[in-house]
Specification:
mainly alpha; about 240 residues
Length: about 240
């Protein structure tokens, strides 16, 4: 048996990378639960620490891996739409805080873009890097589409999105403590606005109300960004 040929065939098969990706994330969930939800052991962090060595050892290009796991990217869309469930269950609370929600969305959304792009501009970053950074708080399914429209680097944008989401999940609790934020709706909306899907996962640990407002923030910010950001970038 030609072992080398067998290994090459296995790693070139899309199904193996789908299985490995899902298995890595499942291991991450187990580790996260065993650690009693330690923020530094988020499932996605564990999955990255498993998948990166596998890709490096196998020598598989990232483009091949990305293409092999396309079906996972497809299901990101339905998963995002499913977040409407906690929204519906907490609709009465959302109506109560409609004005604060709109104000936070506008000022928070503008600030998160301006401060990030401003820092990169000071550091003399390239235009592509700056416009890729503008999507750091937009959920992945929407950001991939926007990246194509505004000429951003989608891989770089996804990297910024992941780092932002992880930092938000890691430091949310101490920030809420220091700022004396106790309202679940405020916590959830902040997490959804800054850390999108990972922020929602963190909000679920707080309460259903926090999860609903996190889903609301992510959804509204994603829609606004998809409509406004391409117009702003094109006319920049």
């Amino acid at each position: 048996m030609n072992t080398e040929a067998l290994v090459e065939y296995v790693i070139s098969t899309p199904l193996i990378w789908i299985i490995l990706t899902i298995a890595s994330y499942k291991i991450g969930i187990v580790v996260y639960d065993k650690s009693k939800h330690n923020s530094f052991l988020q499932p996605i962090i564990i999955a990255y620490f498993i998948m990166l060595p596998l890709l490096l050892i196998s020598g598989v290009p990232y483009k091949h891996y990305f293409k092999s796991t396309t079906i996972i990217h497809f299901f990101l869309g339905p998963a995002t739409v499913a977040l409407a469930v906690p929204l519906y269950k907490n609709l009465k609370y959302i109506r109560m805080y409609l004005v604060p929600v709109i104000l936070t969305l506008v000022f928070g959304g503008i600030f998160t873009i301006v401060i990030a792009v401003g820092i990169l501009w000071i550091l003399d970053a390239s235009f592509v890097t700056m416009i890729s950074m503008t999507m750091r708080s937009i959920t992945a399914p929407i950001s991939i589409i926007i990246a194509e429209d505004i000429g951003a680097n989608s891989s770089l944008a996804l990297g910024f999105i992941l780092i932002t989401a992880l930092l938000g999940a890691l430091f949310a609790k101490p920030v809420f403590y220091l700022m004396k934020i106790e309202h679940d709706a405020a916590k959830g909306f902040a997490l959804g606005l800054v850390s999108h899907a990972i922020g929602i996962a963190k909000s679920v640990e707080i309460s259903q109300t926090a999860a609903a407002f996190a889903a609301l923030a992510m959804g509204l910010y994603g829609i606004c960004a998809a409509l406004i950001l391409p117009l702003v970038i094109i006319n920049w």
